[in-house]
Every structure is written in structure tokens, then in C-alpha cells.
Amino acid sequence: MKVCFSGTFNVLHKGHKKLIEKAIETAGKNGIVYIGITDGEMLQKKQFLKPLNQRLEVIKKYLKAKGFDKQVVIKVIYDKYGPAIKENYDAIIVSDDTINNAEDINKKRIANGLNQLKIIKIPHVLAKDKKPISSTRVLKKEIDEEGRIL
Fold it and tell me: How many structural domains is the chain composed of?
């Protein structure tokens, strides 16, 4: 199975790791996971944005440490659709924040003569204060990457 999802991955945190794990699980032993890392104009309004090469380095290091690197392909994407609207994938992993994008992707896939992706939504991973873990919260030093209050 070919599974895809995307993100900025400004800080690789527990929520991102859950997305990766779910994608690997969904793809199965012989499947492939495509991770889109966003860059370019769509991120110009983001505060505290780390350079793409740093974000790529951290995620590649994590994938290798977990033994996922042989099963994952990373693609840099410049819009919210990336290659998901024109390439052959079976499923997309989303959170509450990105489910609308997945639904838009499926509409574009239909218009392009492709099958719809199976949308697999996982819940937000919560910090100890019961609020979602996010890169912004980590960079503001509210929480650490595991969701512990600082």
C-alpha cells in the first residue's frame, strides 16, 4: 500500500511521530510511505520557521533510528496538495487540522481521473495540559517535544 501525508515538521514532536507510525502501520511491511515536507511561499507567514535542510535532517535521522528509512520517501512540497492530486497513492494520514485538505485532495483526484484516497484520521496527541502538541508550542517553550510542561 502507498500511504502519504505531509507537514512542516518545524520541530519533530510526539504528534509527528504518531503520524509516521500510523503511516508505516497502514502501509504494511511491503508498503511505501511518502512524506511531504512543506516549504516555499506557503510557509512565509510561519513564525520561528527552521530552514528546510534542518527540518529534513531531523526527520531523516529519526526515520533511520526507527528503521523506517527504507520504507519512506520524502518529497518537498510547495502547496497543500503536493503530488497527492496526481500520483498513485492509496491512503492519506491526517489530523483534525488537515482533514479538509484531504477532502480537497480527493476532489482534485476525481477531477484528474484518479481514485479517491482512503482518509485515515488520527487524533491530536495531547500535552500534559490536555492541549495539542505543536511545533509552535515547543518553540515558545510552553512544552517539550514529548508534551511535558516546561
Answer: 1
